[in-house]
Amino acid sequence: MKQKTLFIAAAIALLGLFIGGTLMFKQQQQSEVAQQVQVNQQALMRMHSPLIGAPHAKVTIVEFLDPACEACAAFYPFVKDIMAKNPEQIRLVVRYAPLHQGADQVVAALEAARKQGKYWQALETLLSTQQQWAINHRADVNLALPILSGLGLDMAQLQTDMQSSSVQAIIEQDISDAQALGVNKTPSYFVNGQPLQSFGYQQLAELINSALATPEQAMTK
Predict the structure, then answer these.
(1) Please, are residues 44 and 190 in contact by the beta-carbon 8 Å criterion?
(2) I need a surface site. Which of 11, 51, 178, 204 has the fewest CB within 10 A?
(3) Which residue numbers delimit the Thioredoxin-like fold domain (predicted)?
């Protein structure tokens, strides 16, 4: 009986040590991420970054996305819905972290569509049809382009612009910034400069709501 009691006590102690160690490791990771973001604030937004919403909105969501990422496609309507519920208070800035094979070419197509004034239509079209051109975690731009042609784009010009130095420079800058900020998965969100540390719909909503509730004079613009 005594041995059994000692065994249970030891097991409880080990479990406590494991949980405590896990929590400490997680807190340390979160602290390191926060410090990394603080040091690289200039990497969050660039002049070239696509932006939707009020230009001087109280809350800025910076999203690093990969158009071939399933979670990105799933979260995009969620973010748009939160924006719709808070008109003039939230703006969304899109950055790229094309982690899937071939996704950089799809990003190039998006930026080329932007040159023709149809960036957001192209983004939403590609996200909603992702299963047709992103198969087995590989993005195939040759499957994506026919889908984009339905937007009335000049496809010959689009394919020329995809290879332009300006478009390639945007992609390279975004990849460099994503690495500087420690972005290794998509979507990765930053709300008024604060990284979303625990991923999920509820967690993102809470981070946004916290920023909305923060007095404006204390906000980072």
Answers:
(1) yes
(2) 11
(3) 49-209
